[in-house]
Structure formats: C-alpha cells, structure tokens
Amino acid sequence: MSAGRKTVLTAAATAVVAAGALSVFAVTAADAHPGGHPAKKPTIVLVHGAFADSSGFNAVTQRLVADGYPVVAAANPLRGVASDAAQVRALLDSIDGPIVLVGHSYGGNVISEAATGDSDVTALVYLAGYVPETGETAAALTDKFPGSTVGQSLKAVPLPGGQTDLSIDPAVFHERFAGDVPAKDAALYAVAQRPVTQAALNEPAAANPAWHTIPSYDLISGADKIIPPAAQRFMAERAHAKTEVVKGASHLVFVSHPGTTAAFIEKAARETAR
C-alpha cells in the first residue's frame, strides 16, 4: 500500500440516536477500548443492498465494535453498479490497513467490482448477496432459479431523464423481504427502504470480479424469497466461497440473525488476517 494512495481515517465515531434506535455510520476500534488504543484488526466495511439502508447493520455493528473491530457502514447510492462501486472504492482508498468488505444482496454486485485490484481487501463477505460473474446482472441471477417473489413485489417510480426507481411494496415487504423480522420492525424498514434504479439491476458485471482473486465467504439465507437459496448456493459454489446456511432466514438475514452474521464476518477476518 502506498502512503500517497491511502489517507488516515481520522473520524472517530458518528452515532445518531433517532426514534429510540441507534444508527451507526462509522465507528473505530478506539471507541470500543478505553485509552484509545485500537485493536490491530481489519476494518469491516458494510455495504447495504437495494431496498435497505445502512441502519439495518446497527445490531451487527454493535457486536463487531464490541469485539474490537473498526467498522464503516457505506452509503450505497443504488444508481448503477459501476458508479456505486466507484464510490465504495473511494471509501476503501481512505482507509489504512486491511479491510474485510461485506455486501448484502445487490451490495454483492458492488463489492465484487469495488475490490477488484485492491490488495488491502483481505476477504469478501456476501450476505444473501449476488456474486456475479463477468457480464451477469442481478436481474438475471434472480431469475436463474425458481422461487423469487421480487418481480411481483416492486413499485416503480419514473424519474426525470428516463430512469426508473424501484422499491418493494410496503404491503408485502414483511412477508417477502423480511419474513423472520418482527412485523413492527419490518414496517419501519419498509418505510426507510431506499430505491434502486431498474438500470442498476440490469447492469452487467465488469470483467474480473474481485472474488476471482480474493477469498470469499457467503452467508446464505435459507428461506429467502428475493434471491432463491438455490441461486445463492450456485453463486457461492462457483466462487469457491466458504458458506454457512441460516435455516429459515429471510432476505434480511443480517437483521434477523445479527449474532450469526457478526460471527461469520469475524470468521472471515480471522481466517484472512495478515
């Protein structure tokens, strides 16, 4: 790593308490250890997918920080794979030291491109995520195996300039997107969800996705109604990823099983430590 390419990440912690819930955007290991001496552990960068936002990682972040990991939850624009990946790559370039890069759902497309050629990324962790090969799209991978309900669940909003925003209809969000999350919580996630462009879900993956060269880990949600478990297993096996299946888990596996998710991320961090 060249000193010119990386800059020191000086932000300590930004935690916002709103409506009784903790929303963590960036936390350093120093904040988890009195005395301000950060643990020598990789920074965990969390990238949310479509129909979600970074606040969904709150419970996972709390566990990772308690175990001494610096954490950054990226704001994924959800506008297009290449442009979203460029923004995440800029974030990676601002972090000194090794990084474990985590992506949920469409965030898997983004991290697969953002980490390409970045020697500081030691592991890729996919959470019910897409692990695309060159030229593949999220839409095509969703339909590769039967079982997805996403096509029946979308609401479209035409945008100026010809783009279209897509979101999950709140009326079916709990049943189809977050089936194992309490209904009252799922209702809040449905309101807070951020739309993705139709173009992003149909944008082909760039050449040489990062999982070709970086060790990969895949947490598979066993009752997923958005990305069928069969599709998740197919992508994980193709990438030679180390996998764990969470039985009965919905697409929001990191929300409904934060302990399992944090432990899985930490496993990737330990096994790829430098």
From TrEMBL:
GO terms for molecular function: hydrolase activity. Residues 44-263 form the AB hydrolase-1 domain. PROSITE patterns: TAT. InterPro entries: AB_hydrolase_1 (IPR000073), AB_hydrolase_fold (IPR029058), Sec-Metab_Biosynth_Hydrolase (IPR052897), TAT_signal (IPR006311). Residues 1-29 form the signal peptide. Keywords: Hydrolase, Signal. The keyword Signal applies. PANTHER family: AB HYDROLASE-1 DOMAIN-CONTAINING PROTEIN-RELATED, ESTERASE_LIPASE_THIOESTERASE DOMAIN-CONTAINING PROTEIN. This is Alpha/beta hydrolase.
